Amino acid sequence: MDGLAVSPTDLRDALLSVFGYTDYKSDLQRQATEEVAKATQDVFISMPTGAGKSICYMLPGCVGKGTTVVISPLLALIQDQMEILKKVNVPAVSINSTLSDKERKEIEKKMQLPAGPAYKFLYLTPEQCATDRTRRLLGGLAKSRFLRAIVIDEAHCISEWGHDFRGDYLKLGKLRDFCPQVPFVALTATAAKVVSDDLLNRLKMTKAAVFKKPVFRENLFYEVVQKMEDMTEDDWINDLISYIVKIFQKSGEGQKSGIVYCRSRASCENVAEAISQADVSALPYHAGLKEREDTQKLWMEGKVQVICATVSFGMGIDNPHVRFVVHWNMPKAIEAYYQEAGRAGRDGKPSWARLYASADDRSQLTWLIRKDLDEREAKGKTVNRKGATDRLDTMIKYCLSTKCLHGFIAAHFGDAAPLCKKNCGVCFHGKVKLAANKPKVLHQFKPPGTFKHSYTAGGGVASGWWAGASTSSGAGGEFQRGAQDRVLLDHPGFTRASNLPICSDLPTQPPVKCAAKKKRNSTMPAAGTFKPVGGLAVPQKNLPLTGPGTSSTGPGTSSTGPGTSSTGPGTSLTGPGTSSTGRGTSSTLSLKRKGTTQAPATTTTTTMKQQKLPMVAINTLPATRFAPAALVCRTPSIDVLGQKKKSELHDGSKASRRNSDDSTSGSGEESSVKFTTDLCALTDLCSSKEPEDRPYRSRPQQLDWTRFFSSKASKPGGLVTPDEGDGVPLPLGKKPWIRDEREFWKGDDAEDEDRAGGGGTSGMIAEEFAKRKRATSDANSPRPPKVCRVPSGCELQNPTSTRIPKLSLASRMKCLDDLEKAYAVSDRGTARQKAVTMEDETFRKCQTSQKYTLTVSGMVKKLLQSGKKDEPIDVED
Ligand SMILES: Nc1ncnc2c1ncn2[C@@H]1O[C@H](COP(=O)(O)OP(=O)(O)OP(=O)(O)O)[C@@H](O)[C@H]1O
């Protein structure tokens, strides 16, 4: 289009003068920007999260003539983008359903001024673009040659959502009829080939200039942590907190932020509360919280370090200081995971993405998706069960992958395997290779005379708790992570599959004291001592066959539950603690007591049955009874280990860290030394023991599996087949973006509980928890009382948090300190006293911990900003 083109020189000048960037972030960013600036043809830009795609259209749009229309999926995302433009004084506006008719008319008028539109950018949702009124407006702009380009941000949504619950996405191509010759620009970070082909077809962009960069995020460390079934939620919270603290310690000075994605609102609140108690400021964020915008602002400004959010806090969040993204639950699809994890490290510095996965995740997602599909089907809608099954299956495969996680993601999006340089949990800890067709012993444990259980793993094996997902990737060769994790699940104290070295030559090790965490309400006897037998950890006493955690009904943990059938080729898995043999390759884990003969290398279920031995899930054994000695001594650099503090070997968790150290030392990768050093520290952290008196609420982690896996769901080898789309179902019974776009997309949570309708999973879980709570309270083991730690010399006028139960004293002390610092700006002498008074007043006036925290941070901000720092501030402000 004549007169719309912008020269590269002008672009570069504006890059600095408008956005303050001295250079392009990458050459690809420059090339793409220059192509968009020509305004002559369609452009498709596919670059990783955080690569700087926005600049590619913002820069030409700012400098060149005319208006750029940007179509974006979420109102929150639109607001974020407009905020960026507002900061650099570029006029931008959005037409959406939150506007009154008068406001809308006003904007339309300003867009149609004879001299040209008053706004450089007009943001729209796909639903708005589908209205005749908007089409007419755009058509008019195009006719008068004031429409520079139509940008489709997060273009993968066309393919991922358009076919499902946002049909208007599929109508975007129709805009071509109203705006012929206006170039389209599609931006995405997550378009697999099939998705990009689909979206380009839909947008009639088949002749577009393509700028594509692989999805590889070299500064992101991906890892998966399995939540073991015989550990409590508190244990994992402790693990999470340690991880966060360590990351913040390692990240040096300056602003440091993090995100913890949770599946439910309740979980957001609980996790945020727990983190706050560890003196890391954290707040929940979900659609049910009115103050979520304030929360986001505080987080962006670094006044709150961690945000515990539902997935509504996803695409478009651009805080350069995010050092970690934790997924407290498994997401529904790898696309969503990549997007959300991609919020970390946008400044290019080393950052971490950790996913905590559990059997609960799989079963909850499966249940939820099935429910949604059934309901849609009942309404006569067509559903693509296979599509949704595949997505969830891929996510599960990611969790179980024993191959490079970067490589896994790259392969999913059709990229070549990147050079990971130990930047993922698998590569960092090293792959475990097994010779094909050569069974190898993993570990053998044999409890004396009572029973024998074993676990074998081989190529193509699926781990117990995931069984049902097709996790196999062929027989022989590498161990599947699932196999490792099964072992891991059986050895509390090891938080990662990749911490668990698996070799065949177990050297003898000194006795190792188990570092496993205590299971609450356990009726198991206390930990025994251990002696190695043939390099194996051995319990010294007979082990009971039953106890808490013993269950034969859990998915993947049972001989009766679903998911215990064979899934991989030549793989048979009959439940944890039993045997599973992969084709050609198998290994065995069994228990063995000192003095007994070692079990044969390969012990199969058949053998057990033949011997009439009871089959008991191995992870029902008390955690504290197993020393991970064998695991310690598996590391190839054991000599190095031996020279280190021997006493540390007595801590299984530290031992696991040592394994990491060793793998690092052997890396020889100059360029990744710094990064891997950081990771070592993190590994350390993950494995480190935490004080046991953390006052978290103990929550039962396990659900009644039979409820999830009845009838249809319990097909062997298959998940409950979910629907098409991105696995994020529509809130049932609603079409909010039609009736009131604001209601849905502004506060969009994409939360399972919201979308499942009724109580959703949360309702079901709450019901289950309540049931279990009742059962627990009936039992002899009452919950431990909440620990209330009063700091020594506590100055709080009311040193009890019972009035705001979720508020810890530590948080109050921190607020007090913040207030004091703020007061001290004007008057050092009385700052503390003023802070104490103000804190007390806030504490008495606020009803919730969140309100309290927000109020204090608001006051601190005001105090710091205000010239009259002595002026009393109303806590209700
Ligand atoms: N030329 C540049 N120099 C320095 N920083 C830049 C440059 N371009 C963009 N950035 C910064 O990079 C970060 C990511 O940019 P942007 O939000 O556009 O990424 P994106 O590719 O759209 O990512 P996502 O797909 O995850 O939303 C932002 O903080 C932005 O300010």
TrEMBL record:
Gene3D superfamilies: P-loop containing nucleotide triphosphate hydrolases
Compartments where found: Nucleus
Main location: nucleus
One Gene Ontology term of the molecular function aspect: 3'-5' DNA helicase activity
Bias type Basic and acidic residues, positions: 645-661, 737-748
Location of region: Disordered: 518-608, 643-673, 707-800
Protein EC: 5.6.2.4
UniProt enzyme class: isomerase
Catalyzed reaction equations: Couples ATP hydrolysis with the unwinding of duplex DNA by translocating in the 3'-5' direction; ATP + H2O = ADP + phosphate + H(+)
Short name of any one Pfam family annotated for the protein: Helicase_C
Domain Helicase C-terminal residue range list: 239-384
PANTHER family reported for this sequence: ATP-DEPENDENT DNA HELICASE Q5, DNA HELICASE RECQ FAMILY MEMBER
Protein name: ATP-dependent DNA helicase
Taxonomic source organism: Hypsibius exemplaris
